[in-house]
Fold this protein.
Amino acid sequence: MSAITLATLNRFKADRKRFSMLTAYDASFAAAAARAGVASVLVGDSLGMVVQGGDSTVSVTIENMAYHTACVARGIAGSKDVAPLIVADLPLGTYYTPEAAGESAATLMRAGANVVKLEGGAWLADTVRFLTERGVPVCAHLGLTPQTADMLGGYKVQGRDETAARRIRDDAAALEAAGARLMVLECVPNAVGAAVASALSIPVIGIGAGPGTDAQVLVMHDMLGVSQGRKPRFVKDYMAQACGVEEAFRAFAEEVESGDYPAPEHCYG
Ligand code: KIV
C-alpha cells in the first residue's frame, strides 16, 4: 500500500496542486476517506464536540486522542487504498513545556499519528524546535485556535485588522523557522490566508481561510451535515448532493483540487 507523506504534500505545494484533509475519529470513516482520495486525515480534538457531545475541545484528554488515533490508524492500515497522512491533535494542556509536548507527542505517534498538531503562535517556537529535533513532525495551528477560543472572544474571525494580520504572519514565519512542517490556518480573511500561504514554503491548510491556501480541511460531521448547532460560513454540506458518505468525501476532495471549494460564500472577505 502506498502512502501520502510530508514529502508528497511538499511536492503538491511546489506543483501548486491543492489537496484535501478531513477529520476522522474512527476506522470506518478513515478508510472511507482513503477510498475517496482524501490526502490527509486529521484526528481532531473537535471530537470533544462532534463525538463526545461537549461544547468545546477543552475536555479532550491525551487518552481520548490516543484511542481515536489508534482507531483511525487501524482503519487506514486495513485499507488497500493510498494511505492518507495522519495528523493528530495534542489536546489542551499537554504541551505547555517542550518536555510535556515530547511525552504527549510520543503517545500519539505510538498510537499511529504521522504528525502532531498544536495550537498557538511564536510562544510555541521552542516546543516546535524541541519536537522537530527529536524527529516528531509538527503541524502548527494559527488564526482561530479553538482550545483558547475564550481568550479570542469566542469563535470569531481572526486577523481582521492590520495589527492582528501582521501578528498571524509573524507567528507563521516563527513557527516555520522553528521547524513546523505543516500549518492549519482557521477563520481568517482571504487576504491573510493567501499571504501566509505564499510567504511559507510549508503547506498551509485552510479552514475558513479562503481559496489562497494550499489545501482545505473540514470537520467531517460538518461537511456531512450532521453537526449540531450553528453552521460556520465556511462549511459546505457535501451530503446534500451525494448518495453516500464516500461520494460526499470524494466530491469534497475533487472540489478542493479543482479550486471550486471554497466558493466566495464560504469565505471571509
Ligand atoms: O480539531 C479539529 O478538528 C481541528 C480543525 C478545526 C482544523 O483542529
